[in-house]
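Re: [help] complex structure
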Amino acid sequence: MGSPAQVKTLSCPNCGGGVELRGYARTLNVVCINCLSVLDASTPELKVLQTFQSKERVRPLIPLGKRGKLRGDKWEAIGFQVREIVVDGTPYSWHEYLLFNPYKGYRYLTQYDGHWNFVTTLRSLPEPATSRGRPAVRWMGETYKHFQEATATTVYVMGEFPWQVRVGETAKVSDYVSPPRMISSETTDGEVTWSLGEYTPGEEIWKAFELPGKPPPPQGVYANQPSPHGEKVKAAWKTWLFLNVLLFTVMLLVSLFTRGELVFDRSYLYSSAAQGEASFVTEPFELKGRISNVELAVKTDLRNESAYFNFALINEATGQAYDFGREVSYYFGRDSDGSWSEGRPQETVIIPSVPPGRYYLRVEPEMEPQGATLGFQDRRVNYRIQIRRDVPNHAFFWIAALLLLAPPVFTTLRSVGFESKRWKESDYSGGSGDAED
Amino acid sequence: MLKTPIYLAYGLLLIGLSGWANYRGWSFARVNEIRSVPKTVRDNPGSYRSPYLGYHRYTGGK
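Output below.
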């Protein structure tokens, strides 16, 4: 193929135009590019086999006679045909280029909506199989899922062919996919031909055949188009696993190394009947170490009651205070739906970033008087206040774990969306059972 | 993991932030910080007015 193309030129018996032959003795039929007559290339006089009138001339994107190096071998485009299937009354057509190399034989390039496949005829038969209850074939250890079956009609031909080509001839075609490959079967008059298509970017074709301009941009998702998200999904989940192991290791280390030192622990009784000021201050206690958090826990013996506690953690030296209030309420009972409960008898607050120093706590408990119009009733609560210095706050880790989940979930959803688009064009568009693949 | 460098960097940043938040004692708790509480509060706790007083309500049981 390194030497200039050897071309034999003959005259078309129908229109008298020049007919070029490149495929040597293997060519059975040749189509006159002027009048589109199908001629018998096996006879010296090029007997007319078929004449057809096309509504419009189709211009191949790869000119016939063009040579290019694709997948390590040089190929010459010698034939071109347009084939069509009709699905639900809508015709879909694609282009097929016949490539020839005198040492390698024939290959095909198919093009549909900017999606290209390099096609080779199989020399071994795929085995019938099933995949999730659907038909499939197995070839070279790989399972190809059934995608579509239709009757293809040849609607336009140009160039030369090693078989008897006719406009209007039909074949039952079945496609099985395992991106980026696709196995297709073509059945005509009881003869089945199997071929393997490998998805090839248009840019590769353009570069190989040194075609001007840019290839037409691919439209939609093709049957065996490799998903740009497939590898990303696996990689993202692997990274997610690694990051989670790291996150929980850090969480464990933080739990081990935070002091959680109990600096205050006292029990009190509040009575709404008691006279005088309800608020009081505790004796001072020391908060040591670096700037860190302080956990205040208030545990009560409330039963079907609630109480409110105002707290102020006050620095004895600077007067800086951390003021907060918490309602503690715990109710439970039984009704027609069964037993129920609401709230809990204890509350915990983590006060952020408290500098070291001597502190005291101002406490002001409150309970609403009950049945004020029916007579005053004393309400009591026993409660215990515990203060710890430097406790682990796992909330940040749980939030981080949730945020870590976002990228792999997003990538997975994009991948599922891509697969859904792929299978929407198949015979199985009603279900999305393959969308997760 | 090297195939997802941005995600890896994002994850390490999140973990680092979580660790740092714990080290510095950060919290989501609603706590009001008051600069200078008079020392008289120590002897007269009732003189202190919490900004939260009156904000609370009793929800009662079910």
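Chain A touches chain B through 68 residues (CB under 8 Å).
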